[in-house]
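Incident log, support desk, overnight shift.

02:14 A customer reports that sequence design results differ from what the structure should imply. Their input is reproduced verbatim below. On-call engineer (initials T.W.) acknowledged and began investigating.
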């Protein structure tokens, strides 16, 4: 067309511009279609969560504030995550006096963490009852119950926010003095002093900029700040090296003072201070007592110690066996 003079060459830029302008709405329409498809998929996932049956129903009662811990009791508790599935806990009976420490010991899958989940009332047992200070957990509002309990788990979830904001999650209305005291008691003071921005330092998504020991001490600082009468330690030192564990364990020892504490342990060296050890196997309590008595019994607890054969845990188990 250009050679035949039916189309002026000077019009080429204009044609290219008009073609681009004409294609732009088509491109935007295609992008909108992709976004719509993503939104539909997301909506379906949200809907699936929305229609999921609620595993627990809120109770009407508020727990009164207590000092020095609360009494916990499991009475003939049987539980399975799926009513048609296998039983995870069977006929569990134990009592933790106010301010006492109890340790749950056993191989993986024995039901230790399930007991913690039931105390926090993520689920209700199919049989039996769980009480705190004589009140069935099903009678208590979830907010009131969970304000009464502090959890230090093996995996500490941190949000992409500052250190201060992550610690304040435990008690958003805490004063700066309360926050500073929790940081000091969790052995975080020296670490914060080494940071140019201090408490205003961003931790990154899930705390990727921090070490395992630092994340764990933030979890302990949360527990100090919350100041709850019941404390659950779920494998709180399982992923730490020896140096980090020494700092964390010292903070945990202080945290357990004057609190009812449930210690879930794989490293048996963490349970020496427990008032009672519950040894679990296949969802049942098979032995109970203090470390020395259980070792003398020569049962499953002693077998757990004897079978430990690798890593630092071997040294810890050997030290325990000699006590």
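02:41 Re-run completed on a clean worker. Output:
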């Amino acid at each position: 067309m250009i050679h035949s003079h039916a189309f002026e060459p000077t019009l080429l830029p204009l044609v290219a511009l008009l073609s681009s302008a004409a294609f732009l709405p088509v491109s935007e329409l295609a992008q909108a279609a992709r976004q719509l498809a993503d939104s539909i998929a997301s909506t379906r996932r949200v809907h699936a969560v929305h229609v999921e049956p609620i595993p627990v129903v809120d109770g009407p009662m508020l727990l009164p504030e207590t000092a020095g811990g609360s009494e916990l009791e499991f009475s003939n508790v049987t539980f399975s995550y799926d009513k048609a599935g296998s039983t995870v806990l069977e006929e569990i009976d134990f009592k933790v006096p106010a301010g006492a420490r109890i340790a749950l010991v056993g191989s993986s899958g024995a039901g230790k963490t399930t007991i913690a989940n039931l105390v926090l009332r993520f689920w209700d047992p199919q049989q039996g009852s769980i009480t705190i200070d004589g009140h069935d957990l099903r009678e208590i509002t979830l907010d009131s119950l969970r304000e009464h309990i502090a959890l230090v788990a093996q995996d500490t979830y941190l949000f992409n926010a500052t250190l201060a904001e992550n610690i304040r999650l435990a008690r958003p209305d805490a004063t700066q003095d309360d926050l500073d005291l929790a940081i000091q008691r969790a052995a975080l003071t020296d670490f914060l002093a080494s940071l140019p921005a201090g408490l205003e330092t961003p931790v990154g998504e899930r705390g990727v900029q921090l070490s395992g020991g630092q994340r764990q001490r933030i979890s302990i600082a949360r527990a100090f700040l919350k100041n709850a009468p019941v404390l659950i330690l779920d494998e709180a030192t399982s992923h730490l090296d020896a140096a980090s564990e020494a700092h964390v364990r010292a903070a945990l020892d202080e945290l357990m003072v004057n609190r009812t504490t449930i210690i879930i342990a794989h490293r048996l060296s963490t349970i020496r201070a427990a008032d009672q050890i519950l040894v679990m196997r296949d969802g049942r309590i098979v032995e109970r007592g203090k470390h020395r008595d259980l070792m003398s019994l020569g049962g499953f607890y002693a077998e757990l110690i004897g079978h430990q054969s690798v890593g630092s845990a071997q040294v810890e188990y050997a030290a325990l066996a000699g006590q």
